[in-house]
């Protein structure tokens, strides 16, 4: 039985800004639009860490 391990990477094909949301969508098997909406919603609801989390992930998470 062979199991393939998932790796979190930034998307190169389905990106708006840095590919972070699309990479998270691929990792969790959900639509990237849902992840983008969650980030935008968090930003506008005053969760100040949302922007910082995105920027840190943009720097740390490798491209596919």
Structural account:
The protein has 64 residues and is mostly helical. It has a domain of 41 residues. 53% of the residues lie in helices and 0% in strands. The protein has three helices and no strands.
DSSP strand tally: 0
Low-confidence stretches: none
Q: Whole-number average pLDDT?
A: 88
Shape: globular
The percent of residues in helical segments reads 40-55%
**End-to-end span in angstroms?**
26 Å
Instruction: Provide the β-strand percentage band.
Output: under 5%
Rg calculated over all Cα atoms: 13 Å
What is the chain-wise order of helices and strands? HHH
The chain-level structural class is: mainly alpha
Tally of separate helices: 3
**Major sheet description:** none
Quick structural gist:
The chain is mainly alpha-helical. Helices cover 53% and strands 0% of the residues. Helix 1 (20-28) packs across helix 2 and helix 2 (32-44) packs across helix 3 (49-60).
Based on the model shown, name its key terms:
mainly alpha
Draw up the topology in text.
Elements: H1 20-28, H2 32-44, H3 49-60
């Amino acid at each position: 039985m062979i199991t393939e391990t998932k790796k979190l990477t930034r998307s190169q094909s389905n990106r708006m800004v840095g590919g972070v949301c699309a990479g998270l969508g691929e990792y969790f098997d959900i639509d990237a639009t849902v992840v983008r909406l969650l980030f935008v919603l968090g930003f506008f609801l005053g969760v100040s860490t949302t922007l910082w989390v995105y920027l840190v992930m943009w720097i740390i998470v490798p491209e596919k």
